[in-house]
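Standup notes
- DV: blocked on the single-chain target, sequence here:
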Amino acid sequence: MPDWTFLIIAGSFLIMLGFLLAAFGVMRQESEEVDEERPAGAGKEIRVKGGGVILIGPVPVVFGTDKKYALILMLSAIVLMLIVIIFLR
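- DV (later): unblocked, structure below
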C-alpha cells in the first residue's frame, strides 16, 4: 500500500497557494487602481481571460474564454489524468 501522505500534503499546499495567489492578485489590482487616482470605471479597459477543468470521474469538462485557453486546459487535463493512472497502478 503506497504512502499517500506526501501527495495529500502537496495537494493541500497547492490549494492554499492558489488561494493566496488569487488574494494577492486582487489586492495588487486594487492598489494599482488607488495609485492611479482615477474614478472607478474610467480609463483603460481590462480584459480577463481564463478557464477551468472539472473532472467528473474520468471525463474532463473544459471551459474557457477562448480556444487557446481551452486547448491548454484540455492538454493539462490529459496530463493530469495520465499522472493519476500512473500513480494508481
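- Follow-up: Residues 60 and 77 are 7 Å apart (CA to CA).
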